[in-house]
Design brief:
3-stranded antiparallel sheet; 89 residues
Length: 89
């Protein structure tokens, strides 16, 4: 099934968090409520800045890994690229 998404969230400490999900709205809420990733203990999600849709679980995991290995500057280039599926960036 190709309903997985890779996403990047800008955090309150200006770091970028990358993850995967099948429901981006619910996952962002979990991060904001403190029931998501441990990464958000001590920081909070500010804004969803990148989404890549239509992936299978395996492809999403591989893409997440690729993005996590990128330099911060390259992540910002990705956020500004045509691959970003957030409407009205």
């Amino acid at each position: 099934m190709k309903n997985w998404q890779v996403y990047i969230i800008l955090c309150s400490d200006k770091t970028l968090y990358t993850g995967i999900t099948t429901n981006i709205e619910n996952r962002f809420k979990q991060h904001a409520d403190g029931t998501g990733a441990k990464y958000f203990h001590g920081r909070s999600p500010e804004k969803l800045v990148y989404v890549e849709c239509g992936l299978c679980r395996s492809t999403a995991s591989k893409r997440e890994s690729e993005i996590k290995k990128m330099r911060r500057s390259d992540k910002f280039l990705l956020i500004e690229s045509e691959k970003n599926e957030i409407g009205g960036k």
